[in-house]
Amino acid sequence: MKDILTAPFMVEMIRTATNMYGHGWDERNGGNISLLLDEAELKEYLDMRPVRVLETGFAAPELAGKCFLVTGTGKYFKNVQYAPDVNLGIVRLTDGGTKAELLWGFSDGGKFTSEFPAHMMSHIARLKADPANRVVMHCHPANLLAMTYVHDLDEKAFTRTLWQMCTECIVVFPDGVNVLPWMLCGTNEIGEATAKKMETTRLVVWAQHGIYGAGRDLDETFGLIETAEKAAEIYLKIAHLPLKQTITDEQMHLLEQRFGVKAREGYLS
Ligand code: 13P
Ligand code: ZN
User: Fold this and answer.
1) Which CATH number is correct for 1-114, 3.40.30.10, 3.40.50.11900, 1.10.240.10, 3.40.225.10?
2) Nearest CA, atom 6, ligand 1
3) Rounded to the nearest whole angstrom, what is the distance from the C-alpha of residue 28 to the centroid of ligand 1?
4) Does domain 135-264 have CATH number 2.40.10.330?
């Protein structure tokens, strides 16, 4: 059996959590990540015998039998690199997704993030849209969060503003961002609402809270959030100043052609 702390998915998860903390996106226990694992690969590191069984509090038959590396509830991203076995866990969903067998980690008796419903339901939605999706990531980046206090939460308006703030935004997230109004976090309700929004885009803003991103690997998902957050930062730098020019829809169409992407239907004139 190989040492799980040397597994590429574990090394990448630790690096990503550390990097997210370094970016200031995950104060205290803020944020959570889940990564869908390949069972055959996992078997090289674990005997797959459950250590404990946890209740999920929801059904997710689409994910039954699937294994995830996930951050723990109440755990600090800052500490992941120093004690991965305490702050992270590997679970396998069983019983139609109503139970999660803990295969490794959460060694202080902890459990998966309180946002597990939003993560698992978002995985279901994104896997339908893209069978190669592996990651759901949530964090609290300051500029995107600030923007939800002063900008219209209409998804088209919010997306168009972000696209206009950096030339490459439309290339990185041509599907735009969807936005949820403030809702109580850590519930199945916000999980279901997030997953519904994930059907049409990989970025979902939670007003006055943070953002969810989804992608094929940790790097790509990190980069997606990083790009949107950079755009929000530019917005906050200029929002109070008289606007002299912006990226026009005509220029956006040039970007679509040059980079082979298609902007969300009806979002450009
Ligand atoms: P957890 O510590 O349960 O992961 O919660 C953090 C968070 O960001 C809630 O939205
Ligand atoms: Zn949060």
Assistant:
1) 3.40.225.10
2) 30
3) 9
4) no
Residue whose tokens read 């459950």? 50
Q: Which of 26, 113, 119 to mutate to test the pocket of ligand 1 (most atoms within 8 A of CB)?
A: 113
Domain ranges, ordered by start, for the chain:
1-114, 135-264
pLDDT digits (tens, 9 = 90+) for 183-197: 999 999 999 999 999
Backbone region of residue 90 per phi and psi (left: phi > 0; alpha: psi in -120 to 50; beta: other values):
beta
Tens of pLDDT, residues 93-137: 999 999 999 999 999 999 999 999 999 999 999 999 999 999 999
Q: Give the pLDDT mean for 58-65.
A: 98
Q: Which atom of ligand 1 is nearest to the CA of 206?
A: 10
Rounded Cα distance, 60 and 40, in Å: 22
CB 64 within 8 A of CB 25: no
pLDDT at 183: 98
Q: Ligand 1 within 6 A of 31 CB?
A: yes
Instruction: State the Cα–Cα distance between residues 36 and 45, nearest whole angstrom.
Output: 15
Model pTM greater than 0.90?
yes
